[in-house]
Write a structure and sequence with these properties.
The complex is a heterodimer. Chain A is mainly α. Chain A has 20 helices and no strands. In chain A, about 60% of the residues lie in helices and about 0% in strands. The N terminus of chain A is likely disordered. Helices cover about 70% and strands about 0% of the residues of chain B. The chains are: A mainly alpha, B mainly alpha. Chain B: It is found in: Endoplasmic reticulum membrane.
């Protein structure tokens, strides 16, 4: 029976978990979908009906192709299956075409490509460290990891309701991480390069990969104290890595370089005309920054220190993605955000004297004292979260880039589990505004409760004891209050029509507190590990 | 993990599946002039909210009974009145009803009245909550079966815990919500009467009998209070609840008369009165053995089996049976999932399959396929159905060679159901036989129901009157 003591090779529960979530995805086929549905239908149409030379020039629809070429090829191969469902969806002029066959096909394509994600989860579970000793199946770290990843709330509602292909992409990312954990570095590098050519947002974590591979793969041996041994540099390995990157890049961008369209493709990929924040502020540092700026300006006007007429008119809180200026605090430009993103991770500090516990940042850390693939994973999570915190025009969905890989660390260490619970609950709650229809409200609440309940009880059982202090628990309970305020109380109040953005504002700012707190704790844990290393060395 | 968290997760998952199904199409969506059951519910809210009580069941200028007239007992009417006050989201009300009535009963049943380890009980909760028939009818087609079935289940649970008076109260409420619960009434009656006999009719037994009788009468009176003033009211309500004028069956339904009609056109040969007496006689004959056995041995196990046998017999032989009435035997079969997993799963899948034509009409193909596959997979996997196939586990002491045929027949049956489902969707029927596929579906389901009726009757009757079987039951 399934609940008896599992043998090491008895993985029959894994298909059950995977099938269960797949069934759930299937009955969500007819739920609400966002404009991203039309985006992908448009790309199917473009890649199917037009020659390659027109792909990045086509702009009949406002949703132009803005992912790298490999993703375009992916859509092209999907379109060959699509034509058997409904040929009309592949006509570029059929804007916002949503026949039942179209919906069925697109939804099924997301569900089927999730197979990559399922396989990646299986590989990650195999790499998880666990203590020996008979535990019942539900208490094993690999079971908990599988459940946390396969049934991840954020992925479910972003992919299968809102509509995107993140499962497929995160599958490749997690598979790459799993390969590194298993020591198969070339495969990991190949997978990551492929991923970069599918969706360029993963450039944010490319530095983590770059430095880790350079340091731990190209230098084959370390000194006894763990520092770099320059003599062990292997040019062969560097060349191998380089050729992987170049060949994948050539496969992807080659045709476009040959046609001289590279500038056009790049301009589509990196549209910097958009504003600092998305229409809905991702719960990052800039949300807090905007909030403080707004609060100060309101205060300034009230206290008659500022003249209303002199304040910039464009409102950050309007629904459009415009460029705008901050009123009081200095305005933020793209280059500033780039520096802020790289700063915590790259800025070199002088080598500290042994008696002081100063703290070099993350990448410097994995250069000096690499702790193998797990250190790399931690660095990757910090990079992802750092880029979420400080990046330009960040979407709230980008929180998943930090949450999913972090799940692997969460089932292995008690402290990580505590940070994970905080980050995940806050991050997932911040995704609520994505599903704003009344019919989807019970689904998002039920699924959120399901995932949160499971993550708390399973991790608590795994690490035997409470993982959060009372302040953190109170903060998380406050999320319930925020939800009731935004969904129930506010719509009944008189301000619903004059200030409709207030619920979004409140959600965003409240969540950014939790996310920032998690980021700080994660960063501190990273540095503390380095501190322990240094002490060990003495 | 602790039980409460596992159960909560199962319940949340069950609720999510239910709500997700409701996001699909519903009965009568966009189909004027009559639309479907959704419109019926909405109309009843209108009628109960705007008209005075004594006009609810009458054909007046304001209330055209031909357009979805009220044909359920008073509790349904009061419930519609309640819903009418907050006509925001009707599907929400079904979810609330499920959460407050049906689901707690399922959880209590699994934890207090079924056997096995805690993990097995949680699995039972999950499998019962995943039963596709109820999900698709309540959330897809749109009805409130979870209230009447939930109240009946409360009745079973409370009786199982030994509180006879409260149990009968719960069942009477259930009966006053939907009159089809009469299918379950005979087992309740025989069980309680049997218990009274066992306690000695000259003492405590008589006292118990009187208590139950008084409870039943008072509850009935309270439910029918607004109609008690006028005998004409009561007659009219009864007339609406039991439309004897409508004939033996309507549409295609997987029972004896419809299937017999394929060979002999009984609907045209016999008069309506003859049909009525014929069906009454066969029904009584079918339920007699089971009821007598229950009267002689009023245990919970016999009670569950009698509920199955009685309601299934009613379904197969009674008059004016609708395909949705299969939910009535399905509920007690859900209670047998723990004890006889494979026959129970087989029946539950067949019951879902038998309603396929209805689901296709409502545009619920995808939810039907997904929930059926999910139910089959999870119940077989979690309850280890194929490991409980020995002749001992199936309680078939007398038929020695049958159990070895069971897994093969099960696979064949499921494949045939899948094939028929596919054909119903993908192929067009020939012009001379426009109802070919619904007919094939109902005849195929009928054969299953008949076979399983025989099986459950054998299991119930073959059990010896003295409890020799106690050891075998505990070894489950």
């Amino acid at each position: 029976s399934v609940m008896a003591t599992p043998r090491a090779d008895d993985w029959s529960w894994f298909p059950a978990l995977a099938l269960g979530v797949s069934f759930l995805k299937c009955i969500l086929i007819n739920a609400y979908h966002s404009t991203d549905f039309e985006v992908h239908r448009n790309w199917l149409a473009i890649t199917h009906s037009l020659p390659v030379s027109k792909w990045y020039h086509e702009n009949t629809s406002e949703w132009t192709l803005d992912y790298p070429p490999l993703f375009a090829w992916f859509e092209y191969s999907l379109s060959h299956v699509a034509q058997h469902f409904d040929k009309e969806m592949l006509v570029v002029q059929n804007l916002i075409y949503t026949s039942p066959a179209t919906i069925l096909f697109q939804r099924l394509s997301v569900i089927v490509t999730d197979i990559v994600f399922i396989y990646a989860v299986k590989e990650c579970c195999r790499s998880v460290r666990e203590e020996k000793g008979s535990k019942d199946l539900l208490g094993h770290p690999f079971f908990i990891l599988a459940a946390l990843l396969l049934w991840n709330f954020g992925l479910l509602i972003v992919d299968h309701i809102h509509f995107q292909y993140n499962g497929f992409l995160f599958g490749i990312l997690l598979l790459s991480v799993a390969r590194h954990l298993q020591g198969r570095h070339l495969e990991g590098a190949l997978l990551f390069t492929v991923l970069l050519n599918l969706k360029h947002i993963y450039l944010y974590i490319a530095p983590a990969y770059g430095i880790f591979l350079l340091r731990s793969y190209c230098f084959t041996k370390d000194n006894t104290d763990g520092s770099v041994r320059w003599s062990s540099f292997s040019p062969v390995r560097l060349v191998a890595l380089g050729s992987i990157v170049i060949s994948v890049g050539a496969l992807s961008f080659g045709p476009f370089i040959a046609m001289g369209q590279l500038p056009q493709v790049l301009s589509r990929l990196f549209p910097f005309k958009r504003g600092l924040c998305h229409a809905y502020w991702a719960p990052n540092v800039w949300a807090l920054y905007n909030m403080v700026d707004k609060a100060l300006s309101v205060l300034g006007v009230r206290l008659k220190l500022l003249d209303v007429a002199k304040l910039p008119k464009a409102s950050m809180t309007g629904g459009l993605v415009q460029e705008f200026q901050h009123s009081i605090l200095p305005s933020v430009s793209p280059s500033i955000t780039l520096i802020c993103t790289l700063c915590p991770t790259l800025q070199p500090k002088p080598h500290p004297p042994p008696s002081l516990a100063l703290s070099p940042p993350a990448k410097f850390h994995i250069w000096c004292r690499p702790r193998g693939a797990r250190g790399f994973l931690r660095c990757l999570v910090v990079c992802a979260l750092g880029s979420f915190m400080f990046g330009w025009h960040v979407h709230e969905k980008a929180i998943l880039m930090a949450i999913l890989p972090f799940s692997i660390l969460a089932v292995e260490s008690r402290e990580d589990a505590g940070i994970f619970l905080m980050l995940t609950t806050t991050g997932h709650y911040s995704l609520f505004p994505l599903l704003f229809t009344a019919a989807e409200l019970p689904i998002k609440v039920l699924l959120m409760l399901l995932f949160t309940l499971y993550s708390f009880t399973s991790l608590k059982k795994l690490f035997r004891g409470s993982l959060l202090n009372p302040l953190e628990t109170t903060y998380l309970l406050g999320l319930v209050a925020v939800e009731i305020l935004c969904e129930v109380v506010y719509p009944l109040s008189p301000w619903q029509h004059t200030l409709p953005f207030v619920p979004l504002l409140v959600t965003s700012v409240y969540c950014s507190l939790g996310v920032s707190y998690s980021f700080i704790r994660l960063y501190v844990s990273l540095l503390r590990q380095h501190g322990t290393d240094k002490h060990k060395q003495l | 993990m602790e039980n409460w968290s596992l159960v909560s997760i199962c319940v949340l998952f069950g609720l999510t599946a239910r709500w997700a199904v409701s996001l699909n199409s519903y009965s009568g969506a966009g189909k004027p002039p009559m639309f479907g059951d959704y419109e019926a519910q909405r109309h009843w809210q209108e009628v109960t909210y705007n008209l005075p009580v004594h006009e609810w069941y009458f054909n007046t200028t304001d209330n055209n009974l031909n357009y979805w007239g009220l044909d359920y007992p008073p509790l349904t009417a009061y419930h519609s009145l309640l819903c009418a006050h907050d006509h925001g989201f009707d599907f929400c009300w079904v979810l609330v009803a499920d959460l407050l009535i049906y689901i707690p009963a399922v959880v209590l049943y699994s934890f207090y009245l079924s056997e096995g380890s805690n993990k097995k009980k949680v699995c039972t909760v999950l499998c019962i909550l995943l039963y596709p028939g109820l999900i698709l009818i309540d959330y897809g087609h749109f009805q409130y079966n979870s209230i009447s079935l939930g109240l009946a289940l409360w009745g079973v649970v409370v009786l199982g815990l030994g509180w006879d008076v409260l149990g009968s109260l719960a069942f009477v409420l259930s009966l006053n919500y939907k009159q089809m619960e009469l299918y379950h009434s005979l087992p309740f009656f025989c069980y309680l009467l049997g218990k009274c006999f066992k306690q000695g009719l000259a003492g405590r037994g008589l006292f118990l009998l009187v208590k139950i009788a008084v409870t039943v009468l008072v509850t009935f009176a309270l439910c029918w209070l607004p109609f008690l003033s006028d005998p004409g009211q009561i007659l009219q309500v009864v007339h609406r609840l039991f439309p004897v004028g409508r004939g033996l069956f309507e549409d295609k339904v997987a029972n004896t008369w419809c299937s017999l009609n394929v060979l002999i056109k009984i609907k045209t040969i016999l008069s309506t009165d003859t049909q009525l007496y014929f069906s009454l006689t066969t029904t009584l004959l079918a339920i007699l053995p089971s009821s007598i056995k229950l009267l002689m041995k009023p245990t919970l196990w016999q009670f569950k089996l009698a509920l199955v046998n009685s309601s299934l017999a009613f379904f197969l032989f009674s008059f004016q049976v609708h395909e949705k009435s299969i939910l009535l035997p399905a509920l007690p079969v859900c209670l047998l999932l723990n004890d006889l997993p494979l026959p129970a799963i087989w029946f539950l899948q067949a019951s879902t399959f038998s309603m396929l034509p209805l689901f296709l009409k409502d545009g619920l193909l995808v939810p039907y396929v997904v929930t059926s596959l999910a139910f089959l997979f999870f119940s077989i996997y979690l309850l280890s159905a194929f490991e409980h196939c020995s002749e001992d586990k199936l309680r078939l002491g007398c038929l020695r060679h049958l159990p070895s045929l069971i897994p093969g027949s099960f696979y064949f049956s499921i494949t045939a159901m899948a094939g028929l489902s596919f054909m119903s969707v993908a192929l067009a029927p020939p012009d001379q036989l426009p109802d070919l596929f619904p007919l094939l579906v109902s005849v195929f389901s009928y054969l299953h129901f008949l076979g399983l009726l025989l099986y459950f009757n054998i299991v119930q009757i073959a059990e010896p009157l003295q409890s020799v079987r106690k050891n075998q039951k505990k070894s489950n």
